[in-house]
Amino acid sequence: MRHFSPKRNTTLRKIFQYIRAHRVYLVLSILFAAITAVLTLYVPILFGDAIDGIIRKGQVDFPLIGSLLLEIGILCGVTALLQWLMNVINNRITYHVVRDIRRDAFNKIQKLPLSYLDSHSSGDIVSRVIADADTFADGLLMGFSQLFTGVVTIIATLIFMLTLHVGITLLVVVLTPLSLFMARFIARRTYHLFRKQSETRGRQTALIDEMIGNQKVVKAFGYEQEAVDRFDVINEELQDCSIKAVFYSSITNPSTRFINSVIYAAVALAGAFAVLTGGLTVGGLTCLLSYANQYTKPFNDISSVITELQNSLACASRLFELIEAPSQAPDGPMEMPTAKGEVTLEHVHFRYTPQRPLIDDLHLTVKPGMKVAIVGPTGCGKTTVINLLMRFYDVNEGAVLLDGVDIRQMTRHSLRRNYGMVLQETWLKNGTVRENLKMGRDDATDEEMIAAAKATHSHEFIRRLPQGYDTVLQEDSLSQGQKQLLCITRVMLCRPPVLILDEATSSIDTRTEVLIQEAFARLMEGRTSFIVAHRLSTIRNADCILVMKDGHILEQGTHEDLLARGGFYAELYNSQFAGKET
Amino acid sequence: MKKLAFYLREYRKESVLGPLFKLLEAFFDLLVPLVVAYIIDYGIGEKRTDRIGWMCALLVGLALVGLACSITAQFFAAKASVGCATRLRHALFAHIQRFAYEDLDRVGGSTLITRLTSDINQVQNGLNLALRLLLRSPFVVFGSMVMAFTIDVPSALIFAVAIPVLCVVVFGIMLLSIPLYRKVQAGLDRIVNTTRENLTGVRVIRAFCKEENEKEEFGRQNEALTAMQKFVGRLSALMNPVTYVIINAATIWLIWKGAVQVDSGALTQGSVVALYNYMAQILTELIKMASLIISITKAVACAQRVEKVLDTEPSMEAPSASSSAAPNNAAPMVSFHDVSMTYPGAGAPSLSHVSFSAWPGETIGITGGTGSGKSTLVNLIPRFYDATDGQVEILGQNVKDLPLSHLRDTIGVVPQKAVLFAGSIRENMQWGKKDAGDEDIYKALDIAQAREIVEKKEGGLDFEVEQGGRNLSGGQRQRLTIARALLRDPSILILDDSASALDFATDAALREALRTLRGSSTVFLVSQRTMSLRSADRILVLDDGELVGSGTHEELLKTCRVYQEIHYSQFPEERPEGWQDTLSPAPVSAVKGGHAV
Q: Domain for residue B85, yes or no?
């Protein structure tokens, strides 16, 4: 395997790791391949013997022919059966390997740090999990179904040839590496073309994902033509590199076939002279020639398999890139029980990108049951605080503590089970309303679910959906406000010790909001809560208001304190009512 | 497959030349046995070493010509298949651009994405193989049969029986597996959907510790897909063994019949050998074809899926050019005449019997509870959806009589969901107006209170926004989407709850700036906040799809119960003595008695 570059070599090794689980089937597959290959070579010989029994009028050995034909019939049946089983096994290995790789890729997504997911296009990741895995499967299947049969056919033919003429057989053996060399030569050059094709495809998928995913905005701005134009640019680019990849890789087959034809001519030449010098019979030459043909044919198959494998290796390496991307820092060993709800930020420093500091030396202690509001202008770092509390991101310096324990010492799950989160960005699963509501608590009864839905005033609109709680939610079937109501209900149902509400009611009408606030008030009783809100009226009764600006806490105190101080908060608060006077 | 043929037609030359060169190559292949026969008969037979040498050189020459033909064929096949796939992808993408909102709701984004990517890739592979090999195999198979007839008619009849049986088997397996491959692709759709969902909802999934459930769900779908693939695989795997058995059975029959005929003197041994060789040739070709047919079957299934989307006609029709009637400048900018709207599949109407008119220069506020029909109402103006009943008119013209591009050019929309696209801020802004210069952009950014966002970012307008605008906060995105809409200089500006993520100071400044904008343009302002609406010329109050109030803030505060409730919920201190909320008392008691909270 010297022709494989180290990178591809490791990709191959990784693939074999996956195949190892199916080694019993692999052995069976090779065994069946060997038997079928030998039998397919042997059957023509029996036919030849049978034909030899037909000499001329009156000289036909019917008993011999009869028994030979019966033998052929049985062998063909066996061959066909084994061939089918071999195909089934190959399918099994291939699809299971791809299933496993795909599963690992998906499971990896669950473990990747958010910083990875936030900075990679989702379309590209989807393209890896779907399209690359698919292409890989095709290549692998072709490899299995043709590689073994090819190899066995080569060996068996070689043995048959040796019995005929050693010298000419050696000539063939010495010359055949030429065709392998050719195949490798082309394969090495096409690997990069395939890789480029995959990359261009990834970019195209990203564009498709973005445009088709936001098709409504595209239409609203009459951007359809531009979208098509931009698509066309990448599409043309893809066409260029696809034609190159497809064409150059498909040269392999004709080239190796050409070399085989040259070998064939060489055998004819050497054989003819051997016949003239008496080393070979004419019949022997005919046999050798047909075997030479049979011997070189599998090389063609193998070379086309190698082409296909290039493509699939390129795809596999993209998949492995995803699977092997560094995971988030491992969980701490501690299983955090239900917390009292004391949250401490100890001299926290954090930045998304090294060169741009965001949070510097943030220090804050929140007693259990306290209601903390975070306010400040857009982009001041409010959401970042939440990212740190939930451990979506890790602090660069300092520590976040829950009940006095560094959250890095506990498992993420046990940490997050202590939090209930409602974000401004409403996200619901593509599933029924019931599945979505019970997301935080699978064991909730329907009565509890309906009671929670009533508390958030979503029961009414859910009832009016075509199938009520069993309605499957489509991408845009609900308004933002309705989605937000469902997200709130979802949290209402699990009653965690710490609540995080990031603009949780921003899309809900205020009449309903007032009622939800009551429900929240009851929910938050005795629980620690963090509230990010723009409507300052909703946080007036918070125990502590943090006023943030540019990653720093500017002011801290109760509503009354802060108003009295007449600082930034007072300015913000009064600006809310600025419109009132005009 | 008609559509596919249509896109292939552009590559007519390539798709004829490709197979043609392949046939030429096959033809040169067939000459080789003749040359070998010549070497044996006239070279070795007559001991002429020069003839042997020349003939071997000829073999190499034939191989060279074959190589040239083959490479030419591959080139044309690559060009035609990739080209056709490229055209098809373009056509599908462009076709989706014509879809109305309703079609998009129905079809769903993720399946469109698989069709544009994975399905078309399969079509490309299948086409490439078909162009290279599909013509060659039948050529050899039928050619062999024809040759058999020239040798011996009774024996050739075996060919005439075997070949139709082969056809039945090959096409039977194909026809059975095409729908199954379609199912496989549908399973792939589900996997795409789950993967996408997990990428967009990663925070929620992790917050609820749902990683394991998601893994399980994906595992199930993945397993189902694998099971389906294996099932189809078992069926397709029959192709090779079954054809092998048929051919060998035919050969056994041929040899036996040949033996009988030779015994009676009707046939020579040489003829039997020739007939046998032709049968063997058919077998070799069929083996080649079997793997080809699997790829082609997949490709057909995928092509059908692509075609299904291409055959979906956009549900909304619009004239391509302006109708003869000129806009009536004396008419209201926007007027609704008894408009009702029910979403397909919905139980109840989202908007019922709404009528109103909005004049140039007016600011119309729209408010109401969650799900009361506010967005539905404004979505009817740019004709994102069609009214089920009644008429929507712009300057006296029914929106259905206006070309969509013209209609939407005059309207600036800021949707609820603030979506930006990968690219620079400038490029994002130019969605609003293609040729907008920096000066125009900064003007719009000023009004939208977004100038400071841009100025703070590295590179200013050249700052690269990531996919979906995720390197910007919600409030920053909203302001930028407002600026984007303002750039169109629209006659009608629709702000659909577009300031929800803005803090009050920014919101107030935005409203102030928008006020200066008024001229002849009509502004629709959807909002929950009565504060944002109070400066509107008129406010429409919706409740459960019905228009329950219309008037200025002060008027509504006197007359409209729903509006009063909305307002007092935001300004409790303004509540008059003895005020009682009427909103659904039942849920309130449920909260009090409820144990869920």
A: yes
